[in-house]
Design brief:
It is a single chain. With 249 residues, this protein is of the alpha/beta class. It has one domain: Rossmann fold (3-Layer(aba) Sandwich). 52% of the residues lie in helices and 14% in strands. It is built from ten helices and seven strands. Strand 4, helix 4 and strand 5 form a beta-alpha-beta unit. The N and C termini lie far apart (38 Å). 41% of the residues are buried.
Amino acid sequence: MRLTGAVVLVTGASSGIGAAVVRRLTRAGSQVVAAGRNPDRLARLAAETGAATLLADLARPGAGRELAERVLARHRRVDVLVNNAGVGWAGPFAGMPDAVADELLAVNLRAPVELTRALLPGMCHRGGHLAFVSSIAGRLGVDGEAVYAASKAGLDIFAQSLRLELAPHRVTVSVVVPGVVDTPFFARRGQAYRRRRPRPLPPERVADALATAITQDRAEVYVPGWLRLPVAVRGLQPALYRRLAARFG
């Protein structure tokens, strides 16, 4: 799909991967609507890129549908939806507050479902692209991040199922699977990233991969590409993968 002239909605655009995606797509000539929760960061992003902005808290029930209605009232159409907004939490599952678990499921899974359902009728009529920013945690599972991994796994399967369902309707679907990315995500989840390897990637790498996925209609893109290997090992040799994961983390 062509990015030049496309109306693109990017969620979670206040910082990190979302902000990098906004910069990348505005450079490509897209009309970007950047949605996020931080008004100051959104204002700076708008001044830098020329993107339109909308404040949205996707943790609220019905927020996804409400955001879709606000975008359509302004632009009449959305050609590309980038479901990027996500929150995390790290720690033992037994000690996880109920409110935090609810927020993770709402932002990471419920809101993308709501947004997609609200924008899909127009896309089926005109054609369009759905892009989902998942996580390697959703493919492999992560110690201490059970709910986050589950929410991303659900998003992953939702996207893959839609790709099959929407093929006759000229609506294409991509999933971007990042590993560790240098964003405020780790500070916000309550636990800093302490491992020496793999080293965090700049969010611009993910933004470039997402742009490629849209323009080339790629079903999935791993960032970095070598993340395909542990996923393949888990699929082909699950017992071996569990032993390696227990030893090396």
